[in-house]
Protein backbone atom coordinates (compact mmCIF):
# COMPACT_ATOMS: atom_id res chain seq x y z
CA UNK A 1 0.00 0.00 0.00
CA UNK A 2 1.21 3.49 -0.93
CA UNK A 3 2.04 5.72 2.02
CA UNK A 4 0.14 9.02 2.06
CA UNK A 5 2.20 12.15 1.45
CA UNK A 6 3.42 13.96 4.60
CA UNK A 7 1.06 16.79 5.54
CA UNK A 8 3.81 19.41 5.36
CA UNK A 9 4.56 18.50 1.76
CA UNK A 10 0.91 18.88 0.78
CA UNK A 11 0.55 22.15 2.66
CA UNK A 12 3.66 23.60 1.15
CA UNK A 13 2.58 22.69 -2.37
CA UNK A 14 -0.82 24.36 -1.85
CA UNK A 15 0.60 27.44 -0.13
CA UNK A 16 3.27 27.93 -2.78
CA UNK A 17 0.67 27.68 -5.55
CA UNK A 18 -1.55 30.24 -3.80
CA UNK A 19 1.32 32.62 -3.03
CA UNK A 20 2.56 32.49 -6.64
CA UNK A 21 -0.93 33.14 -7.97
CA UNK A 22 -1.53 36.12 -5.65
CA UNK A 23 1.91 37.69 -6.09
CA UNK A 24 1.44 37.62 -9.85
CA UNK A 25 -1.08 40.48 -9.69
CA UNK A 26 0.62 43.85 -9.00
CA UNK A 27 -2.60 45.66 -8.01
CA UNK A 28 -3.43 43.08 -5.31
CA UNK A 29 0.04 43.63 -3.82
CA UNK A 30 -0.34 47.42 -4.05
CA UNK A 31 -3.62 47.33 -2.12
CA UNK A 32 -2.00 44.95 0.37
CA UNK A 33 -4.58 42.16 0.07
CA UNK A 34 -3.53 38.87 1.68
CA UNK A 35 -5.09 35.42 1.24
CA UNK A 36 -5.33 32.83 3.96
CA UNK A 37 -6.04 29.19 3.10
CA UNK A 38 -7.74 26.44 5.09
CA UNK A 39 -7.99 23.38 2.89
CA UNK A 40 -9.33 24.79 -0.33
CA UNK A 41 -11.20 27.64 1.41
CA UNK A 42 -9.80 31.14 0.96
CA UNK A 43 -10.28 34.22 3.13
CA UNK A 44 -9.00 37.56 1.89
CA UNK A 45 -7.76 40.23 4.31
CA UNK A 46 -7.35 43.90 3.52
CA UNK A 47 -5.19 45.44 6.28
CA UNK A 48 -6.21 49.06 6.84
CA UNK A 49 -3.80 51.76 5.66
CA UNK A 50 -4.31 55.52 5.20
CA UNK A 51 -4.06 55.29 1.42
CA UNK A 52 -7.35 53.33 1.33
CA UNK A 53 -9.39 56.23 2.74
CA UNK A 54 -12.12 57.83 0.64
CA UNK A 55 -13.68 60.14 3.21
CA UNK A 56 -11.11 61.48 5.71
CA UNK A 57 -13.82 63.21 7.79
CA UNK A 58 -15.39 59.95 8.98
CA UNK A 59 -12.88 58.37 8.12
CA UNK A 60 -14.14 55.62 5.80
CA UNK A 61 -12.61 53.28 3.24
CA UNK A 62 -13.03 54.45 -0.39
CA UNK A 63 -15.92 52.76 -2.21
CA UNK A 64 -13.52 51.95 -5.02
CA UNK A 65 -11.22 50.12 -2.60
CA UNK A 66 -14.16 48.06 -1.37
CA UNK A 67 -15.09 47.19 -4.96
CA UNK A 68 -11.49 46.30 -5.81
CA UNK A 69 -11.15 44.16 -2.68
CA UNK A 70 -14.31 42.18 -3.46
CA UNK A 71 -13.45 41.81 -7.13
CA UNK A 72 -9.94 40.58 -6.32
CA UNK A 73 -11.39 38.07 -3.86
CA UNK A 74 -13.81 36.79 -6.51
CA UNK A 75 -11.11 36.50 -9.20
CA UNK A 76 -8.69 34.71 -6.86
CA UNK A 77 -11.37 32.27 -5.69
CA UNK A 78 -12.16 31.37 -9.32
CA UNK A 79 -8.50 31.07 -10.31
CA UNK A 80 -7.79 29.00 -7.19
CA UNK A 81 -10.65 26.58 -7.91
CA UNK A 82 -9.49 26.36 -11.51
CA UNK A 83 -5.95 25.37 -10.43
CA UNK A 84 -6.81 23.28 -7.39
CA UNK A 85 -7.20 19.95 -9.21
CA UNK A 86 -3.97 20.46 -11.14
CA UNK A 87 -2.04 21.31 -7.98
CA UNK A 88 -3.50 18.31 -6.14
CA UNK A 89 -2.77 15.87 -8.95
CA UNK A 90 0.74 17.39 -9.30
CA UNK A 91 0.05 18.15 -12.96
CA UNK A 92 1.09 21.68 -12.09
CA UNK A 93 4.32 22.30 -10.21
CA UNK A 94 3.73 25.44 -8.07
CA UNK A 95 7.43 26.35 -8.36
CA UNK A 96 6.90 26.73 -12.09
CA UNK A 97 4.26 29.45 -11.67
CA UNK A 98 5.99 32.74 -12.55
CA UNK A 99 4.74 36.06 -13.94
CA UNK A 100 5.43 34.71 -17.44
CA UNK A 101 3.99 31.22 -17.04
CA UNK A 102 1.09 32.22 -14.80
CA UNK A 103 -2.25 30.78 -15.88
CA UNK A 104 -4.58 33.38 -17.39
CA UNK A 105 -6.97 34.78 -14.78
CA UNK A 106 -10.75 34.97 -15.29
CA UNK A 107 -11.86 38.28 -16.81
CA UNK A 108 -14.58 40.35 -15.17
CA UNK A 109 -17.66 40.82 -17.36
CA UNK A 110 -19.64 42.78 -14.80
CA UNK A 111 -19.46 43.41 -11.08
CA UNK A 112 -22.12 44.89 -8.78
CA UNK A 113 -21.33 46.02 -5.25
CA UNK A 114 -23.88 46.74 -2.52
CA UNK A 115 -22.48 49.12 0.09
CA UNK A 116 -24.22 48.07 3.29
CA UNK A 117 -22.41 50.26 5.82
CA UNK A 118 -19.38 52.54 5.85
CA UNK A 119 -16.03 50.75 5.67
CA UNK A 120 -14.34 51.59 8.97
CA UNK A 121 -10.62 52.35 9.32
CA UNK A 122 -9.90 48.73 10.32
CA UNK A 123 -8.94 45.50 8.59
CA UNK A 124 -11.58 44.01 6.30
CA UNK A 125 -12.20 40.38 5.39
CA UNK A 126 -13.92 38.74 2.43
CA UNK A 127 -14.95 35.34 1.15
CA UNK A 128 -16.25 34.46 -2.29
CA UNK A 129 -18.63 31.68 -3.32
CA UNK A 130 -18.70 30.38 -6.87
CA UNK A 131 -22.41 30.02 -7.57
CA UNK A 132 -21.95 28.57 -11.02
CA UNK A 133 -18.87 27.85 -13.06
CA UNK A 134 -19.17 26.58 -16.61
CA UNK A 135 -16.60 26.24 -19.37
CA UNK A 136 -16.94 29.87 -20.46
CA UNK A 137 -18.85 31.78 -17.79
CA UNK A 138 -18.86 31.88 -14.01
CA UNK A 139 -21.10 33.63 -11.48
CA UNK A 140 -19.61 34.56 -8.10
CA UNK A 141 -20.95 36.12 -4.90
CA UNK A 142 -18.71 37.85 -2.37
CA UNK A 143 -19.30 38.97 1.22
CA UNK A 144 -17.10 41.38 3.15
CA UNK A 145 -17.10 42.24 6.84
CA UNK A 146 -14.91 43.91 9.46
CA UNK A 147 -15.33 43.33 13.18
CA UNK A 148 -18.38 41.09 13.10
CA UNK A 149 -18.82 38.25 10.63
CA UNK A 150 -22.61 38.74 10.66
CA UNK A 151 -22.47 42.47 9.94
CA UNK A 152 -21.46 42.72 6.30
CA UNK A 153 -20.22 46.12 5.17
CA UNK A 154 -20.37 45.13 1.50
CA UNK A 155 -21.63 42.32 -0.71
CA UNK A 156 -21.14 41.80 -4.42
CA UNK A 157 -22.12 39.62 -7.32
CA UNK A 158 -20.21 39.34 -10.57
CA UNK A 159 -19.90 37.45 -13.82
CA UNK A 160 -16.60 36.31 -15.24
CA UNK A 161 -15.26 34.99 -18.52
CA UNK A 162 -13.16 31.90 -17.86
CA UNK A 163 -9.83 31.62 -19.69
CA UNK A 164 -9.31 28.91 -22.29
CA UNK A 165 -7.51 26.03 -20.51
CA UNK A 166 -5.46 24.80 -23.44
CA UNK A 167 -2.40 27.05 -22.90
CA UNK B 1 -7.76 75.00 -8.11
CA UNK B 2 -10.98 73.58 -6.69
CA UNK B 3 -10.41 70.54 -8.89
CA UNK B 4 -7.09 69.82 -7.20
CA UNK B 5 -8.61 70.28 -3.73
CA UNK B 6 -11.32 67.77 -4.56
CA UNK B 7 -8.82 64.99 -5.30
CA UNK B 8 -6.52 66.08 -2.45
CA UNK B 9 -9.44 65.54 -0.07
CA UNK B 10 -9.77 61.88 -1.15
CA UNK B 11 -6.57 60.04 -0.12
CA UNK B 12 -7.21 56.92 -2.21
CA UNK B 13 -8.01 58.89 -5.38
CA UNK B 14 -4.83 60.92 -4.87
CA UNK B 15 -2.82 57.68 -4.45
CA UNK B 16 -4.18 56.44 -7.77
CA UNK B 17 -3.04 59.69 -9.43
CA UNK B 18 -6.56 60.80 -10.33
CA UNK B 19 -7.26 64.20 -11.80
CA UNK B 20 -10.57 66.06 -11.84
CA UNK B 21 -10.84 67.45 -15.37
CA UNK B 22 -14.34 68.85 -15.29
CA UNK B 23 -17.17 69.27 -12.78
CA UNK B 24 -20.52 71.04 -12.55
CA UNK B 25 -24.26 70.65 -12.90
CA UNK B 26 -24.30 66.96 -12.07
CA UNK B 27 -21.56 66.12 -14.58
CA UNK B 28 -17.94 65.19 -13.84
CA UNK B 29 -14.86 64.02 -15.74
CA UNK B 30 -12.09 62.28 -13.77
CA UNK B 31 -9.03 60.65 -15.34
CA UNK B 32 -6.22 58.38 -14.17
CA UNK B 33 -2.80 57.60 -15.70
CA UNK B 34 -1.64 54.07 -16.49
CA UNK B 35 0.69 52.82 -13.75
CA UNK B 36 2.56 49.50 -13.49
CA UNK B 37 1.48 49.19 -9.83
CA UNK B 38 -2.19 49.09 -10.82
CA UNK B 39 -1.85 46.26 -13.35
CA UNK B 40 -4.22 43.30 -12.98
CA UNK B 41 -2.84 41.06 -15.72
CA UNK B 42 0.98 40.96 -15.72
CA UNK B 43 1.06 39.23 -19.11
CA UNK B 44 -0.71 42.06 -20.91
CA UNK B 45 -0.12 45.04 -18.61
CA UNK B 46 -3.85 45.78 -18.50
CA UNK B 47 -5.04 47.83 -15.50
CA UNK B 48 -6.97 45.88 -12.82
CA UNK B 49 -10.76 46.20 -12.88
CA UNK B 50 -10.59 47.32 -9.25
CA UNK B 51 -8.64 50.45 -10.16
CA UNK B 52 -11.24 51.20 -12.86
CA UNK B 53 -13.92 50.72 -10.17
CA UNK B 54 -12.20 53.28 -7.93
CA UNK B 55 -12.08 55.75 -10.84
CA UNK B 56 -15.76 55.17 -11.65
CA UNK B 57 -16.78 55.51 -8.00
CA UNK B 58 -14.83 58.77 -7.58
CA UNK B 59 -16.22 60.20 -10.81
CA UNK B 60 -19.82 59.24 -9.97
CA UNK B 61 -19.44 60.74 -6.48
CA UNK B 62 -18.11 63.99 -8.01
CA UNK B 63 -21.11 64.15 -10.36
CA UNK B 64 -23.47 63.69 -7.40
CA UNK B 65 -22.03 66.44 -5.20
CA UNK B 66 -22.00 68.85 -8.16
CA UNK B 67 -25.69 68.28 -8.84
CA UNK B 68 -28.30 70.75 -7.63
CA UNK B 69 -30.11 69.85 -4.42
CA UNK B 70 -27.43 67.47 -3.14
CA UNK B 71 -25.23 68.10 -0.09
CA UNK B 72 -21.47 68.33 -0.43
CA UNK B 73 -20.99 64.76 0.71
CA UNK B 74 -22.22 61.43 -0.59
CA UNK B 75 -21.72 57.71 -0.12
CA UNK B 76 -22.15 54.88 -2.61
CA UNK B 77 -25.24 52.71 -2.08
CA UNK B 78 -24.56 50.43 -5.02
CA UNK B 79 -22.46 50.49 -8.14
CA UNK B 80 -22.52 48.13 -11.11
CA UNK B 81 -19.66 48.12 -13.57
CA UNK B 82 -19.66 46.46 -16.99
CA UNK B 83 -16.24 45.80 -18.48
CA UNK B 84 -16.51 45.96 -22.25
CA UNK B 85 -12.87 45.67 -23.26
CA UNK B 86 -9.41 45.85 -21.65
CA UNK B 87 -7.99 49.39 -21.42
CA UNK B 88 -4.89 49.78 -23.60
CA UNK B 89 -1.73 49.68 -21.42
CA UNK B 90 0.13 52.99 -21.23
CA UNK B 91 -2.96 55.09 -21.95
CA UNK B 92 -4.94 57.36 -19.58
CA UNK B 93 -8.39 56.20 -18.56
CA UNK B 94 -11.04 58.92 -18.63
CA UNK B 95 -14.38 58.52 -16.82
CA UNK B 96 -17.41 60.74 -17.49
CA UNK B 97 -20.33 60.56 -15.06
CA UNK B 98 -23.80 62.08 -15.17
CA UNK B 99 -26.07 62.37 -12.17
CA UNK B 100 -29.35 62.06 -14.08
CA UNK B 101 -31.88 62.06 -11.25
CA UNK B 102 -31.97 63.19 -7.62
CA UNK B 103 -34.67 62.50 -5.03
CA UNK B 104 -34.72 63.70 -1.41
CA UNK B 105 -32.43 60.86 -0.41
CA UNK B 106 -31.01 59.17 -3.51
CA UNK B 107 -28.92 60.28 -6.51
CA UNK B 108 -28.85 58.10 -9.64
CA UNK B 109 -25.69 58.11 -11.73
CA UNK B 110 -24.39 56.68 -15.01
CA UNK B 111 -20.78 56.72 -16.17
CA UNK B 112 -18.64 55.66 -19.11
CA UNK B 113 -14.85 55.21 -19.21
CA UNK B 114 -12.55 55.16 -22.23
CA UNK B 115 -8.84 55.33 -23.10
CA UNK B 116 -7.28 57.15 -26.09
CA UNK B 117 -9.95 55.60 -28.29
CA UNK B 118 -12.87 57.70 -27.03
CA UNK B 119 -15.29 56.05 -29.45
CA UNK B 120 -15.06 52.59 -27.87
CA UNK B 121 -15.82 52.51 -24.13
CA UNK B 122 -13.66 50.45 -21.80
CA UNK B 123 -16.32 50.21 -19.10
CA UNK B 124 -19.68 51.63 -18.09
CA UNK B 125 -21.22 52.07 -14.65
CA UNK B 126 -24.62 52.62 -13.08
CA UNK B 127 -25.13 53.40 -9.43
CA UNK B 128 -27.18 54.88 -6.63
CA UNK B 129 -25.62 57.29 -4.13
CA UNK B 130 -26.89 58.93 -0.95
CA UNK B 131 -28.23 62.44 -1.47
CA UNK B 132 -29.63 63.29 1.94
CA UNK B 133 -28.08 63.90 5.33
CA UNK B 134 -27.33 60.19 5.41
CA UNK B 135 -27.38 59.71 9.18
CA UNK B 136 -27.28 55.94 8.91
CA UNK B 137 -24.20 55.95 6.67
CA UNK B 138 -21.89 57.23 9.38
CA UNK B 139 -19.65 54.63 10.93
CA UNK B 140 -21.42 53.31 13.97
CA UNK B 141 -19.74 52.57 17.25
CA UNK B 142 -21.82 49.43 17.71
CA UNK B 143 -19.15 47.36 16.00
CA UNK B 144 -16.69 48.39 18.67
CA UNK B 145 -18.52 46.66 21.47
From TrEMBL, chain A:
It holds the Pfam family 4HBT_3. CDD domains: PaaI_thioesterase (cd03443). Signal peptide: none annotated. InterPro entries: HotDog_dom_sf, TesB_ACOT8-like_N. Residues 60-158 form the Acyl-CoA thioesterase-like N-terminal HotDog domain. PANTHER family: 1,4-DIHYDROXY-2-NAPHTHOYL-COA THIOESTERASE 1 (PTHR43240), THIOESTERASE DOMAIN-CONTAINING PROTEIN (PTHR43240:SF3). This is Thioesterase.
Amino acid sequence: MKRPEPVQVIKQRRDTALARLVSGVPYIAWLGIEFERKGDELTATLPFTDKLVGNPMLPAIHGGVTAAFLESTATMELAWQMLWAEVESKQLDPEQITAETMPRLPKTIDFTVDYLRAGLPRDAYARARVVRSGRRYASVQVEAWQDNRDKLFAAATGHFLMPARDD
Amino acid sequence: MIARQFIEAIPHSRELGMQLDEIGGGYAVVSMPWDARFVGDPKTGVIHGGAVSALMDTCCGAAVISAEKTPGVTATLDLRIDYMRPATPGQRIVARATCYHVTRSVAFVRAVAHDDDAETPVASAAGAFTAGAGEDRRPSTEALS
